[in-house]
Write a structure and sequence with these properties.
The protein has about 160 residues and is of the alpha+beta class. It folds into two domains: about 100 residues, Aminopeptidase; about 60 residues, Gcn5-related N-acetyltransferase (GNAT) (Aminopeptidase, 3-Layer(aba) Sandwich), CATH 3.40.630. It contains five helices and nine strands. The strands form two sheets. Strands 1-2-3-4-5-9-6 form a seven-stranded mixed β-sheet, covered by helices on one side. Strands 7-8 form a two-stranded antiparallel sheet. It is globular. This is Acetyltransferase YpeA. It comes from mine drainage metagenome.
């Protein structure tokens, strides 16, 4: 595989990502979860992975405006042909470094309880599922987190800030 370059997201990246995001999710309609505003307002914590000038991955996240020491990963995607090679891990590491640089001590993210691949990935990355009072296949979930019938796994990970 050719070298993958990672850089900050730009507003001009939006169209190329939105054009493939549903395909990358096996035809599931995901594009509505990724409005262009993320590419405009959260560039310091959002990254694009490119190989030979083609977008092959991205992570979109931000620092919480409510909890200034927390960052949130909103959306991550990797081209199917680039999966299982460490690219998602590398994108997360870039996000972690950016969040730490901005003073964050915790990263949070949310996934669906039926997305076993996502749950497994986040656990391997050192995330812990918050106790939501209910279990789904052994994983803590928050019932109705995103509305009626929309249960979610809420993950958090402490960042290793060095004390100065």
């Amino acid at each position: 595989m050719n070298e993958v370059l990672i850089r900050h997201a730009e507003p001009s990246d939006y169209q190329s990502i939105i054009a493939v995001v549903d395909e990358w999710w096996g035809g599931r309609h995901m594009a509505d979860m990724l409005p262009k505003l993320f590419f405009v307002h959260f560039r310091p914590t959002s990254f694009i992975a490119e190989c030979n000038g083609e977008v092959v991955g991205f992570v979109i996240g931000f620092v919480s405006q409510t909890h200034s020491e927390e960052a949130y990963i909103h959306f991550v995607g990797v081209h199917p042909s680039h999966r299982h090679g460490g690219l998602a891990k590398k994108l997360y590491e870039w996000f972690f470094a950016a969040a730490e640089k901005l003073g964050c001590r915790v990263v949070r993210c949310v996934t669906s309880p039926v997305n076993k691949g996502s749950i497994s990935f986040h656990r391997r990355m050192g995330f812990t599922a918050e106790d939501g009072g209910k279990l789904f296949d052994g994983t803590p979930i928050v019932e109705g987190y995103d509305g009626e019938g929309e249960d979610r796994v809420l993950f958090f990970k402490a960042l290793g800030l060095k004390q100065g």
